[in-house]
Amino acid sequence: MTQKQSGMTLIELLIGMLLSLFLIAGMSQIFMQSQKNFALERNLSDMTEDAIFVLDLLSKSLSLAGYSSDGKMDLFLTETQADAKLMNSTIIFNQSEYIHGVNDELIYRFKITSATDLKNSLCTEPLDFTANDIIKVRIYEDKDGDGVPVFYCKVKQTSVTDSFNAKPLISQVEKLEFRYGVQNKNDVNNPSDDTFYYAKSADIDDWKNVFAVKVFLVMRSADNNLTSAKMKYTIENTSYTASDNRLYHVFSKTIYLQALAQ
What we know:
Number of strands: 11
Radius of gyration: 28 Å
Order of helices and strands: HHEEEEEEEEEEE
Strand order of the largest sheet: 1-2-3-4-5
């Protein structure tokens, strides 16, 4: 007696294929979401590491602002527009000023008396040690040739006729903002007044009263299309909206200057 053979019907086959498609689609969604989460975490980690590196380096560097082993601040002479032009800046120092800036750019200067004075400063690797030279360092953000926002530093040494080329430190710096801590020395009726406030550059009358710098560093992710909507970020109650779908994060640090205590 011949045994009848049976197999899947066409309907069963179609149902099986449909279930397989649903399963593959679900697994693809999980894989794509996993890849997106990995990209988010990787970009955020890179942004954080870069910001911490630069803020720590800037903190060490600004500790030299106004430094002079003999404490003679009068050696920091008044500069000219030609001096500012060498640094591609409009900032001009008055005598005894060791720090000056605008809201998105900062320049400081110090005197070197030994080669070790250059160890903690930004952008000073090309310098040759010359005793009693005045070193001027400019910190700012600008676009590179590919349109990527970059954190730059630029240095000038008094024994050298020109300034060195700008040195890129990290890329993807969307915005760099400075606020300046100022000691309140304007009250003649209360000369012991030791209060202070943080101000924008336009509100500072005497830069010799600046005792601290608050740095706001806005980092953006290297990868685009990581967010479904354009991110917003805030710096001191001012809100900004991104122009793309990258990650954005604001890092800040307050750096106290040592020269004021001299």
